[in-house]
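To assess whether ligand presence alters the predicted conformation, the chain was also submitted together with adenosine-5'-triphosphate. Input:
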Amino acid sequence: MRFRRLKLTGFKSFVEPADLRIEPGLTGVVGPNGCGKSNLLEALRWVMGEGSPKSLRGGGMEDVIFAGTAQRPPRDFAEVSLLVESSADGESEVTRRIERGAGSAYRIDGRDVRQKDVALLFADAATGAHSPALVSQNRIGALISAKPAERRAMLEEAAGIAGLHVRRKDAEQK
Ligand code: ATP
Ligand code: MG
């Protein structure tokens, strides 16, 4: 699976719509401290289903919505879209939106879907919000000190079998 394009509106410091093309090969994000480099990585994790506000450096889920500055009023929603390309499914656009007081909603190619559908899409491609390929500034220590079960989950995700577990849990519930 390849990430092709990332669009953000009202997400953290990205208050105005931003549309970033992700070219093949290595992408570097450079800029001064506080310009939003980590916020971009968090937008990627968020659109792939990240459910923990703490791992997005917030206290609650709505903290990803632009909170306003002295010059600008806060926004009432945040939206991130990720265009991905995979050999199995071609191109798909995954969108997550959160509104104040209304929680998160997901779409794939404009269709309303469950969070689980988004999780499956990425789990089958061995990526996702908890992919070991995404290492945030504070996570090196977490990887080193992970409990065996957590480390196993990371390895399974890397090995591309996390999707099987999501399906098994789903089947067990039925
Ligand atoms: P560093 O080089 O220090 O790692 P960085 O480029 O990774 O910096 P980020 O941590 O991505 O920077 O961005 C931090 C900025 O984002 C801060 O200025 C912070 O105020 C702003 N920010 C975070 N959340 C919000 C929000 N909800 N609303 C408005 N601004 C936000
Ligand atoms: Mg940073």
